[in-house]
Structure formats: structure tokens, C-alpha cells
TrEMBL record:
InterPro entries: GerMN. Keywords: Signal. It holds the Pfam family Germane. Residues 1-21 form the signal peptide. It comes from the Bacteria. Coiled coil: none annotated. Residues 83-172 form the GerMN domain. This is GerMN domain-containing protein. PROSITE patterns: PROKAR_LIPOPROTEIN. Residues 25-53 are annotated as: Disordered. It comes from Kribbella pittospori. Residues 40-51 have a biased composition (Low complexity).
Length: 193
């Protein structure tokens, strides 16, 4: 008799642990959903998969004041070609599909980036064209886009900038100005989660 009572009590406890049954669907607040479920066509925050057999590089673009890494194809795996693919990808900006998914670039239209010096794992980039007139937030995101993209290359750890051959101060993620070499660590806080 005692065993039957324990079995009945256990059955009642287990029945109480189930998911309640509803006759009608309950609405879900869209704001409580993760962004990838609100807009399933939006690219993920990580790099896109590489196509088979093709060399790829990582470029960063902006979504809601955060940097998102995506892959771009490179002509070859030489250091020069990989660097050129990164710089060209940044200058080209997001594709129409990526723009439709909310990605933008903080780089000024018409800004040109070129490598003027490489030593060990440090690169000096020359900025040509329009470089001013943006908000501090846009400037930080632009510098972050470039630094995170270029330092994603295995051969590069540091980036410095010059304009007309003169070193340029850059904004760090915390808003401080520096002419010191910039690393990925300086802009990690800007990455999308």
C-alpha cells in the first residue's frame, strides 16, 4: 500500500513539472528576441564562411555602433595580395545585401588607404582623400574598422597612420588620442557580441 501511495505522489509531482498547455498562442514581445531571430537574413557577427579553395581576408563593418567581421576573397595568399584585399574590401564597403541587413561603413567616401611602410609585423598606412568632418564616434569606428581588419592578417600586429607623410593621431576606443602603433586589443570593445 505504501508503494502505491509513493507511486501516486511521484506521478502527481511529475505531472506538475510539465509545460502548461494553452488553448491560444501567447504573443512574444519582439524586443525580447535575440537580433538573429528578429531578422534572420542579417549576417552573423562572426566572419562569413570562406568559399572552398579561395583565399579570404577579414574586413570589419559597422552595425549599430559595433564592428562586425566578414570575409572577402583575395587574389592569392601572398602578404601583399592579402593586404590589398583587406584595403580594397574596406574601401568598397558592404555589399548591397549586407547594407540591406543593416551593415554600413564608418570610412569617409573617397578615403583611400595605401601601405607606405612595412617593418616586421608593423604597417604604416597612408590616408588620402577626405579624412575629417566626422563625429568622434564615427572616427573611432573608422579607425577600429581598419585596425581590426588589417591586424586580422597573420603578418600584422600593429598599424599606424600618416597623412601626406606626417604621422596622424588616431582615436582609441576609449576616446583618447595617440600616435603610437594601434593593435586589435585597442578596439576589441567595439566588436559586436
Amino acid at each position: 500500500m505504501k508503494a502505491i501511495a509513493v507511486a501516486i505522489a511521484a506521478a502527481l509531482v511529475l505531472a506538475g513539472c510539465g509545460v502548461p498547455v494553452q488553448d491560444d498562442p501567447a504573443p512574444i514581445d519582439p524586443g525580447s528576441l535575440p537580433s538573429r531571430l528578429r531578422n534572420p537574413t542579417m549576417p552573423t557577427t562572426g566572419p562569413t564562411p570562406a568559399t572552398s579553395g579561395q583565399a579570404t581576408v577579414q574586413v570589419n563593418f559597422v552595425r549599430r555602433d559595433r564592428l562586425v567581421a566578414l570575409n572577402r576573397e583575395a587574389a592569392s595568399t601572398t602578404s601583399t595580395e592579402l593586404m590589398n584585399a583587406v584595403l580594397q574590401g574596406l574601401q568598397d564597403g558592404p555589399t548591397a545585401t549586407e547594407q540591406a541587413a543593416g551593415l554600413t561603413s564608418a570610412l569617409q567616401p573617397g578615403l583611400t588607404l595605401s601601405v607606405i611602410h612595412v617593418q616586421a609585423k608593423s604597417v604604416v598606412l597612408e590616408l588620402s582623400g577626405e579624412t575629417g568632418g566626422r563625429s568622434a564616434t564615427e572616427n573611432v569606428l573608422a579607425v577600429g574598422q581598419i585596425v581590426l581588419s588589417v591586424t586580422a592578417l597573420p603578418a600584422v600586429d600593429e598599424v599606424t597612420f600618416s597623412h601626406n607623410g606626417v604621422p596622424v593621431e588616431a582615436l582609441l576606443a576609449d576616446g583618447a588620442l595617440t600616435t603610437k602603433p594601434l593593435t586589435a586589443k585597442d578596439y576589441e570593445a567595439l566588436r559586436a557580441q
